[in-house]
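Sorry to interrupt, but I need a hand with the structure work. Can you supply me with one protein entry, sequence and fold together? No commentary is needed, just the two lines. Leave the record below and I will have a look.
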Amino acid sequence: MAGSGVAQMEGVSKRYGGRFPWQRGVWALRDVCFSLPAGRVLGVLGPNRAGKTTLVKVLLSLCRADRGAVLRLGRPCADRSTLSRVGYLHESQAFPRYLSARELLTYYGALSGVGRYTLARRVNELLERVGLADRAVEPIGRYSKGMLQRLALAQALVNDPALLVLDEPSEGMDLLARRMLHEVVRQRRAAGQAVLLVSHSVPDVVELCDLALVLRAGRVVFLGTREELLAKSGDQRPTAAPPSASAETARCGPVWSAAKPAAAGVAPVQALSAALEQLYLETVP
């Protein structure tokens, strides 16, 4: 597998259980493949138990795939040294409640190898950015869920990651916090960094993502650009991959041709949202 993407999977399968003849086991992922280049945002959608969390775990070396190849920042995922350049926002935080926000960010930054003076400056910047500067020395056990989600975003950014993985990042956020989250994602993309966004929020995926991946029962049922997804909503017949489609898209997921070339610029958000909602509903058994 060529190492051109920041995050890549090729033919990845993962099964839980079934290691003995009398165990059936459950396949959480089946022959998943995708490539996330630098400067792009990939949205991962799917119903519950589709395999989204397992995909993230395999990418971050939290569990091992049974088959297939996984590259992270151009290196096999077994090379854990690349994890220092990855930021991860987990859907359920388990931060020590006795630490303050400043102490927590300093701790995680040190774990990632950020230099002392750089870390002190970055912690201050992030606390301001997520709106917690005035609560920086307060124990986080007093924080609301929305404040914890803001802190989790700051923690994911403390090492200035080349790959940012966000698992349900907008959960519990108010409107202002969601707007701040969107700005962060856009800035990461503009700076040439890659973002993998796992979300049940179709509007978030529509507004933020260049690429979309939809899972159903561990299999990829769609992989392509937003424009290809919009074209699919208008023409449900599968066709050969268009010449402009990438090899990864053509091999790993269905590509649907548009009856007419997409107009210049970004397609209307309402139409894209409707297309994604329809495709999402189709994935539910």
Notes: The longest helix spans residues 175-190.
